[in-house]
Target: F-box domain-containing protein
Amino acid sequence: MLSQLDSYAGPSQLATPVFTKAQLVDVPSQPVDTQDDCYLARIPLEILLRITQSVPTTDLGNLRLSCKVFERALFSFFSHEFFRKKQFMVFPTSLQALIDISKHKKLSLCLRHVIIATDRYLDHDSSGYLGGRRNWEQEQERQKRIACAGHESLMSTGLLRDMLVEAFSNLPNLETVDIRDFNAGSRNRDGLGTCWTSYGATSLVRLTGEFMNHNRVMNHNRATSDPYPSQLFSAIIASLATANARPPNIEVVLRDRGWGLFENAFYIPPRIESSVLPVLASLTKLHIVFAQEGASPNTSPFLLKRFLSLTPNLTWFRLNVHGNGSSIWKRQTELLLTWLGLGETDPPLIDNDITPIRLQFLEQLDLGLVEMEPPVLLKLVLKFSSSLRRLSLRSVSMVDKKNDPKLNVNIWARIFQTLSKKAGLNLQSLDLANLQFVTQDDVVSVPLRIGGPVEFIDGQTKESRRSQTYTSQFSMMLLERAAAETTPMWPVCT
Model:
């Protein structure tokens, strides 16, 4: 698979760099011709690295092929940029490339971050009729059907897990496994706006004439009906367990706010439970996007709670909650956050509930797209006060049920003031973005300006900043500043 060249660049994306086997083979310790007499080969390494930092991927590959001295000199730099972190998709050739890399003597040691992206083709025509089309159109349609069939075969036969197990078992330095629904636009080497894409994605685009889909399937207008991320998450957990792999970081990063992990994604089959438990116990960073979809407002996400109870060594926990914004969703979210904030001596929220988690090593807590009342947040922060150093609140809505909306009470300022007076809290970073509060029954929704107004060069035009990161070695100063600079943008009464 590594011998295939994936060099097609679409309008908005560029192929993930793939090099020929000649470029990837281990360099022998005694090369036949070191080409040491070549003038270019005598260029100091720091200058050579400076020159190659900005050349396009194709030119870099050609340079490495031109001279064994260059190939040897650039290998560490080359492998760090292109193989330390690499993105794949659920497609046979893409996963086979992951396996090939894992079996490579040197590249297997470089790969530390594996991304499984949600690329796939959707809604393909399975009628079998190709008449009336030109030859190249027929061939594109055939290639798309092959791609769809390959993807569906991996998902339905268990081959996805088998291939991931084979790869994970040969990656001794694996640190992070990541599920995402986007291509990162940070590939500056090949021009502004180009992206890192999944291995093989741009080759499929060239063969089929269609870009792949990262996003969810809409089914009967239910935004969260597509279980694909949940299926990937379950397969990855099972694969890590079977492969006896222990990466400290698992991340789910979904930009589509209608997508997330269903509760079933956190189910641990009894048959592999003994293998899964060490995987969860070794986690220090867990980022998840939870999709609430229960029918009852008092439904408890039992499987998610149990999953979290098996991750005692987390130092960084991120929870984003995607849903439809209904009253049921809001209630379920608040119950989950309330459970996270329960102490060991607090009574359970419901009968036979999961014992509250301790997370005694938690240093960073990120909450996003959630709604709660002030006591829930206060208790959650204070529970982890002995270890918590960084708190991130993004798109968080605070429900104010006590104060009359007409009194214009800044409930967020009160929360930060309350926290600033708590002994034992040692926050050093507070990241705030898109905060708001709502009155009871959602009568009034008030966004917040954070950090004061921003003044443009003309000295007249101003806008409201909606995000700010506060840092300080002193928790009290940090929180007092946040309280002073968090200003509600009250609606204008007419």
Observations:
- Residues 15 and 201 are 7 Å apart (CA to CA).
- The longest helix spans residues 135-157.
- The chain has a mean pLDDT of 84.
